[in-house]
Write a structure and sequence with these properties.
The chain is of the alpha/beta class. The strands form 2 sheets. An 8-stranded mixed beta sheet has the order 3-2-1-4-9-6-10-8, sandwiched between helices. Strand 2, helix 2 and strand 3 form a beta-alpha-beta unit.
Length: 311
């Protein structure tokens, strides 16, 4: 197999069914034009569920561009998210959570954009879905281009229709497709222990040294994440690390005087504080968040955005 164009890097832990669904969503897009340009790297973080490895190996029997590694000791997500990239050979890295899914045209569209633009960072449009089987509109493969963080900030500020729009870009790491050489260079600038222990290492590594880099945002939705999943059960360290990541991005990109950036940062940090406090209250009250209608109603502010994407 020649050097792949994209290495899809998945830090996996104990989510057999969602990982299987993710693999199905991507191999369904393989054809003779695509599969030789892709490698899939799964790094299993010592999952207690020993059925994950045989499930993945069934896919590996059919597709020789899937690689599986299993750690003997649990590294935790942040460490695994960074470490899985060390197995990659592709020109680009696509970081992907083990409980998300690609839309059925995203891989082909991403390859087209790479070959046209040779970008440094592709920030995919992604949405959170209660139902992963809901179809997504496929539109022409158009995209927006920016140079450096200020252009990206202007875009976010002008499109801040819902809190969810902002949260997607700074929490949802499955939307990041980054040039491998840039990722390695940026990662090397930080103390390994600091990066591996922060809950948001991808934000710090990807966004903190993007000053003169080419950034692409496609107009189509490329990734779907799950609402109401276990990853929302975070602690206050989540907020501390998130704010630290935002502060580092601000300083590295000279955004201290940007009123737009300060508005965006304040909005997203405030959103997460309220979300975390709500989780704490639900746990204290022993409320099942998946069955409680009140909690589900909190997600209605996604409704308008999602409806605009549904075919």
């Amino acid at each position: 197999m020649k050097k792949p164009l994209i290495s899809i890097c998945i830090p996996a832990y104990n989510r057999l069914q969602t990982l299987k669904e993710w693999l199905e969503s991507i191999v369904a897009q393989f054809d003779w034009k695509i599969d030789e340009k892709i490698e899939i790297i799964i790094a299993d973080d010592a999952s207690p569920d020993l059925n994950i490895e045989p499930m993945v190996k069934k896919f590996m029997e059919k597709y020789d561009n899937i690689v599986y590694h299993r750690y003997s000791k649990n590294m935790r997500l942040s460490s695994n998210l960074m470490h899985v990239t060390t197995f990659a050979h592709g020109e680009y890295l696509w970081l992907m959570a083990d409980d998300d899914c690609m839309t059925d045209f995203s891989l082909n569209y991403a390859i087209e954009i790479i070959e046209k633009t040779h970008f440094d960072l592709l920030i995919c449009n992604g949405v959170f879905w209660p139902d992963m089987n809901t179809p997504v509109k496929k539109k022409p493969n158009t995209f927006k281009t920016f140079t450096g963080m200020p252009g990206f900030v202007d875009y976010l500020y002008d499109h801040r229709n819902t809190y969810q729009d902002l949260v997607v870009y700074f929490q949802f790491y499955s939307i990041l497709v980054v040039k491998h050489s840039y990722f390695k260079e940026s990662l090397s600038m930080y103390d390994r222990k600091f990066i591996y222990e922060n809950i948001f290492p991808q934000d710090i590594v990807v966004y903190s040294h993007i000053q003169n880099k080419k950034i692409i945002i496609p107009d189509n939705v490329f990734v779907r994440g799950r609402t109401l999943n276990e990853s929302y059960k975070a602690s206050m360290k989540f907020i501390t690390d998130f704010k630290l990541a935002m502060d580092m991005i601000e300083k590295a990109n000279w955004l201290q005087s940007s009123k737009k950036w300060k508005t965006l940062k304040r909005t997203v940090v405030s959103w997460w504080k309220k979300t975390i406090l709500l989780w704490k209250l639900l746990r204290w009250l022993h409320i099942d968040y998946k069955k409680n209608p009140f909690f589900r109603k909190l997600y209605f502010f996604y409704k308008k955005f999602i409806q605009n994407q549904v075919a």
